[in-house]
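We were asked to recover a plausible sequence for a given structure. The inputs and outputs are reproduced exactly as logged, with field labels preserved.

PROBLEM: sequence recovery
POSITIONS: 256
GIVEN STRUCTURE:
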């Protein structure tokens, strides 16, 4: 995959405007075929799914999964100007979400409220409607949560945690996806009964809090610094240097 141009930090930390979100959505549709990119709403959820992982993921690790669900690299002859602009907008949103979650414990997810007058998406004969059975507020949040789930499927470290609090927060997000098993339907029914979401605003607030909770729960692991283990006892300043030079440690490798 061609390397994107580095973006100055002063520009990275500025969040996207509505016009830039629309531009980014259009740019993503121009991803070379046969790659299958996410759209801008799924991207927003995907970025949050990346940010709350218990491991720090480098841009080069997660970015290919934006341009293609399977993470297939972009072709070498991809349009450089397109890649630079698209990557710049993605990284700016990533940086803005990182800052908002870390500093405020809150962010504004990109959610497209369903238009009552809008025709339902076309469903081919023999296919089931992915929105069938979903609560109306979940229908609006499903694309965002699907993007979040895309991140957890690409990088399963979060889902593999055995922490009950982590699993509970994930369930609060995944309640907005179509249930695929009796167990999932039971979880959704329990949440609907114990933590009902009657309005889209309530559901968005709960979604944001669930993401913030996950960020808090995984922060220690994400920024864990591994302790360097020595193979031999630490040499004293006046001890012989372990390198075998015959000099004192302070006069050899202990100079620094």
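RECOVERED SEQUENCE:
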């Amino acid at each position: 995959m061609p390397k994107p141009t580095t973006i100055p930090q002063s520009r990275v930390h500025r969040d996207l405007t509505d016009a830039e979100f629309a531009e980014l959505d259009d740019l993503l549709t121009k991803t070379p075929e046969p790659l299958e990119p996410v759209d801008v709403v799924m991207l927003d959820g995907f970025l949050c799914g990346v940010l709350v992982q218990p491991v720090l993921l480098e841009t080069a690790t997660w970015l290919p999964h934006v341009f293609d669900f399977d993470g297939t690299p972009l072709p070498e002859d991809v349009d450089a100007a397109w890649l630079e602009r698209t990557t710049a907008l993605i990284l700016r949103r990533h940086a803005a979400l990182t800052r908002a979650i870390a500093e405020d414990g809150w962010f504004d997810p990109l959610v497209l409220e369903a238009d009552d007058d809008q025709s339902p998406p076309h469903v081919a004969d023999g296919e089931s409607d992915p929105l069938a059975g979903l609560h109306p507020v979940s229908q609006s949040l499903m694309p965002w949560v699907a993007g979040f789930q895309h991140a957890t499927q690409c990088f399963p470290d979060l889902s593999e945690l055995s922490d009950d609090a982590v699993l509970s927060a994930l369930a609060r997000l995944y309640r907005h996806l179509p249930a695929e098993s009796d167990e999932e339907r039971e979880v959704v029914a329990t949440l609907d009964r114990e933590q009902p979401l009657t309005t889209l605003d309530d559901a968005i607030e709960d979604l944001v809090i669930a993401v913030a909770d996950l960020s808090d729960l995984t922060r220690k692991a994400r920024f864990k610094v591994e302790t360097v283990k020595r193979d031999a006892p630490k040499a004293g300043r006046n001890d012989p240097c372990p390198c075998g030079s015959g000099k004192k440690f302070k006069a050899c490798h202990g100079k620094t």
